[in-house]
Amino acid sequence: MFELIAPFFHDLYDKTGLNFNIFYDRYEYDRFLSGAVISLKLMFGAILLSLVIGILGAWAQGVGSRVLRGAINAYIQAFRNTPPMIQLLFFYFGLGAFTPQVDMGGYTEPLVSAFAWAMIALGIFGGAYNVEIFRSGLEAVPRPTLEASESLCLSKWQTYRHVTLPLAFRICLPSLTSNLISLAKTTSLAYVISVPEMTYVLNQVWSDTINVPEMMLILFVFYVAVVALLGAGLHFLERKLALPGFGR
Amino acid sequence: MTQVRTETGNARPAQYALSGVSWYHGAILLLGFVIVFAAVHLNSREADATNLSALDTLSLWLPFILKGFGLNLLMSFLAMAIATVLGVALGIAQVSQLGVVRVASKFVTHLFRNAPWLVILFTVMYLLPVEATLWGGEKVIIPDWIKATFAFSLPVMGNISEIVRGAINSIPTGQWESAEGLAFTRRQTMVHIILPQCIKRSIPPWMNWYALLTLATPMASILGVHEAVGNAQAAMEAGGGRPEFLLPFYLFLLCLFFAYIYPIALWTRKLEQKYAVSH
């Protein structure tokens, strides 16, 4: 791949002065690739964690005690109404100071790396929105449908498993899509705790070679492409799962 | 460039009303914050007697941090004003009858909706000129915070554009038809019939985007704007940069933003329920 595109971009630089050095300089190319991989990993991890939190939270809100419900509401409000950037700083610097250090033979490394803190903080941040989304989906399942399943002698668990969950998931999929997309975009904030993801890496590249406009273009293209792919994937799922006659 | 969600409903993430939220939730949260602070305070008093404790440092620098927070608020007001003006124009352009205008405004809207805030912030900070030439020919340096304000207004502009477009589309076709029957021009219909009806249903998502905008303003500190987070970090440095400062300082910043945003969120929710459009 690199050999294929390198001559073209080198030529482009010689002729027009557009310096896309991440595509013809081996070192920068590797940096770029590792940044892209870390960005995608971070998005994947944060989205997965936020989904798990969302599902558990919505379930606990449905069956839990008053105290548990109150605690989850407090969690949702605390994380939705504070800046995600300060949340990241708080987790990494504030709580990171208390995590044990691991001896790596001569030097120590924190048990939880910056990448892991970013994943945890963003997952918790996105989870606060997901709990709401899943809960509203569960609540939007029509009562008569549940009564119908009761009259068919389905047990409570069977109703939950075969009627409530599949319908609720379909109901909340559109808003879930927009939340996951915004979470994927928020991963660029991991820059503030110096996780070497896309924004951070390209920032280093343009600091080294002073080719800000070109790298900025790459950054835009990267995020717009990732967001479009994620959106298209979830939209495909939505269409795939659509039940004829249900919903819109 | 295929942003998939286009209805108004999805232009605002916080559309799901929380059942039974009331002021006392906020009170409980603040109480929790206070307890953590007290714990930190006791802890640090044990730790050393020679240096200022973390909380004493915090109270010493409190005016400085609050001054920074004032800049956060100023940036959020200005950015929201810019975003509203540009966003409404862009939203109306999205339902224009001219194909070119429609496509171009859709492109701009989706570009700014899909790019992360931080990327837009970097773009504006690095690519906008450092100084501007006035009409008289004299040059002035544009302060960083003004550039940051402009940068923050761009993503909100894209989202407001979607809100406006969704609101216009949600007005029943009968309104257009009856206006046509009364011999209104398209422009008159827009100004006197359609847009006034859009205002009410756009207010809750608009306020929601104001909250999100305010929550994004700390990013300006990355590029050296002296707002709350930047000032807090400077205060920590000035106090000796000890690691035990980090937890109380960042916790204080979280509280500060929470105390400002939470009432707005509650108010938004109230308006949302009040203005709920039943179809």
Walk me through what this model shows:
The complex is a heterodimer of chains A (248) and B (279). Chain A is built from 9 helices and 2 strands, in the order ααααββααααα. Chain A is mostly helical. Chain A is globular and about 75 Å long. Chain B has a single domain (22-275), classed as MetI-like (MetI-like fold), CATH 1.10.3720. Chain B has helices at 23-47, 54-94, 99-114, 117-127, 144-170, 173-181, 186-216, 228-238, 246-275, and strands spanning 131-133, 139-141. Chain B has a two-stranded antiparallel ribbon. Chain B starts with 22 loop residues before the first helix and ends with a helix.
Kindly summarize this structure in a few lines.
The complex is a heterodimer of chains A (248) and B (279). Chain A is 76% helix and 2% strand. Chain A is built from nine helices and two strands, in the order H-H-H-H-E-E-H-H-H-H-H.
